[in-house]
Each structure stands twice: as C-alpha cells, then as structure tokens.
User: Fold this.
Amino acid sequence: MDIEQLGQRIAEIEAAVVARLPSVANVDDLRRVENEVLGKEGALGALITTIKEYPPAQRGQVGQVINAAKGRVKAALDGRRAALEAAVADAEAAAAAAFDPTLPGYVEPMGSVHPVTAVQWRIERLFERLGFTVEAGPEMEEEYYNFEALNIPATHPARDMQDTFWLTNRKVLRTQTSPVQVRAMLKYGAPLRIIAPGRCFRYETIDASHENTFHQVEGLMIDREISIPNLIALAHTLLREVMERDVKVRVRPGFFPFVEPGLEIDMNCQICAGKGCPTCKQSGWIEVLPCGMVHPNVLLAGKVDPHEFSGFAFGLGLTRLAMMKYGIGDIRVLNSGDLRPIVAARRLEGPVVAAV
Ligand code: FA5
Assistant:
C-alpha cells in the first residue's frame, strides 16, 4: 500500500467511525467502538505496525498521517462521549425535579383488632388488676376434660345440652371453655384465680345469636369462704366495665352439672334497649354469664379438697358481649369477612389498637 492508498484507507476508516457515532447509545458502547478503531488491533491502531513496510525515508511521513488520523478520530469519540454524559446528567436532573417532597404522602389504611379481640383484651386487663392470671386450653379437647371431669358422665342427659363436634380420634372440639377449670386446678392447685378466653364449637343451627364457632371467657376463683355474693358482685363489675355504661342485670336459676347452685346472669339487650328484637328473641334480655358455685365433684377432679375450699365459676359469652357492646345485631357478620362490625367498633372507640 503506497502513501496515497494509505490515505484513502484512513479516510474510509474515519468516515465509517463518524457515520457510526450518532447511533452509539451509551458510554460502554462508545468504549467498544474506540477499542475497535484505536486499540492495538483496531482498524487505525494496527496500521502503525505497517510503518516498517515503507522505505525509511517515508516512514516519518506515514507515522504522521496515521497519528493525525488517530487524533481526529479520538476527538470525534470524545465529542460523542461528552454528549452522552450530558444526556445522562440531564435525565437525572429531570427525574430529581419531578420529585416534589412537599406533596402529601400516601396514608396506608390502618388495621385494627376484631371486636371480639378488643373485648377479650379489655376483660383480660380487668381481671389481671384483680389478681387473676390468663390461661389457655386446647380447642381439640379430651372427652374427659370437656365432660367427665365436669361432672357430666357419658350417660348423663346434660351431654345433649351442647351439641358436640366429635372427632375421629375420640376427642371433641371443645363445646365450652369450662375444661380449662380442671386443667388449671391440676396445674396450680388452690387457692386459684384464673380466666380462660377461647374459641368454642357447637354443632348448632346458626341464627342471629348462635354460631357454630364462638368465643367464651371462663372464670374460676377458688379460695376459702368464697360465696355467691362475691360472684354476683364480680359479674356486675365485669359487665359494667366491659360495656363502659350502666347495664341492667337479672339473676335467675340455671342448671349446669358442674356448678351447684347454678345461675344465669342476663343483661338487658343493648341492641333494642330491652324492647325485644331478633337478637334477644324478643325477650329484651340476653344471656351472657352463666355461672355458679363449683360442684364438689369438679373440685375433686382437680384434686382440690372441697371441705377446705369452695369456688365460683362463670362462662361468659364473649362473642355475644362484643355484639352488645358494639351494637352488632347479627352474630354471623363476626365470622365473615364483613368489615362493618370493625367500622362500628372504630366509631365507638377510635382505632382499637391504640387502646391496648
Ligand atoms: C356454658 O357453656 C357453660 N360452660 C358456662 C358455665 C361456666 C356455667 C361455668 C357455669 C359455670 P352455655 O351453654 O349457656 O354455658 O354457654 C355460655 C354462653 O356462651 C352463653 O350464655 C352464650 O352467651 C354463649 N353461647 C353459647 N352458645 C353459643 C352459640 N352457639 N353462639 C354464640 N354464643 C354462644
């Protein structure tokens, strides 16, 4: 290749690079192009090695031609690099300008606890102040603790009082929280003060006030010289404190094999103010607190001496109490995904979470 041909070859290389530059989209691609042209084995870079093929007298001129071309190509590459960097800086500045820190933030909707949980927590705090501890028992319960230990042998007609979900392993879904009574006596002995909130299950026809899954709170106090006036006083305090208003209660006899005597403490229906509605079955009263003095057979099952100790127990209908407190007329909404009871609870209390 003589000098003239070399000049043409260089002009072609330069023209190709210049034509290609506008389509180079970023600095990394530009570095690749630079290497392909100016690198040791690049189109221009490799020409340097051809110098020795020229007569010594021409070699200086050949070197100058090649280096001048490399300088022009380098300048074109630097120009494109500057343009690409400026475009990136402009895009970053535009993005920063689009962010307005003075705009109000997005407020996440705040969750809150279920009305039944809110009432349960309130009851737990009240009883903790009175020296009670909070116990739990299994929802899948031994037949023994759900029935026999509570003075309900297999042949006793009282078994039919609570329609039971029997499991194939001969256990039951507990129909009441009362099994925790004997479990707690065996665990701690006497004297004893516990409450046991939890879910209960009954194979029932569902209506406005009956669910097959609902909550109770068991209460048990065992000591020397415990009597019915202690129980009634505590029941009244409990209902007033939970409802946060004065409520009417009535006491009537009740039968449960595990208490003697047994009582039913009812509260005036808060849905209809005692006038009568589907929730209270038009009676104006709602049964919330069956209770009584613990039967000696139950104390014996718990290895507590009935000659030394006596006690009272109650089984508060927690779900129904939550309904009364928040004016929820139909129990079914509490186990559904319906948020209306939550909203009602919020309206009365503010965010329930904050009250805990
Ligand atoms: C009992 O379950 C006894 N274990 C209560 C007890 C404990 C008595 C200790 C004496 C001493 P009862 O079956 O009545 O009793 O249920 C107690 C409360 O649970 C009822 O007053 C009612 O408020 C609630 N309850 C009962 N069945 C349902 C149901 N299907 N749906 C919603 N609440 C119910």
